[in-house]
Amino acid sequence: MNITDVRVRKIAKEGKMKAVVSVTIDNEFVVHDIKVIEGEKGLFIAMPSRKATDGEYRDIAHPINTKTRDKLQAIVLDAFEKAADELVTE
């Protein structure tokens, strides 16, 4: 799996959600609405989810294993940091 594009679409000034990101995989598949969230231990990503009839949120798309999640998170957070840096210098 190669992440071929990362787009940071929204950066919030306040609140725990810092950005909404789209990633393109192998120039063939896009996952929208990955959230960058600031938690107690730092930034992390939350995959797109939908509220089920029982009130719980379920991921719509997600990595199958930890290695893939870690790789995706590192790429997304790197793109987020670059986008945040660009806003500061403007």
From TrEMBL:
Species the sequence originates in: [Clostridium] fimetarium
Assigned protein family: Belongs to the SpoVG family.
Keyword annotations of the record: Cell cycle, Cell division, Septation
Top-level division of the source organism's lineage: Bacteria
NCBIfam families, A to Z: PRK13259.1
Keyword presence, Cell cycle: yes
Tagged with keyword Cell division: yes
Function: Could be involved in septation.
GO BP term (any one): division septum assembly
Protein name: Putative septation protein SpoVG
Pfam families linked to this entry: SpoVG (PF04026)
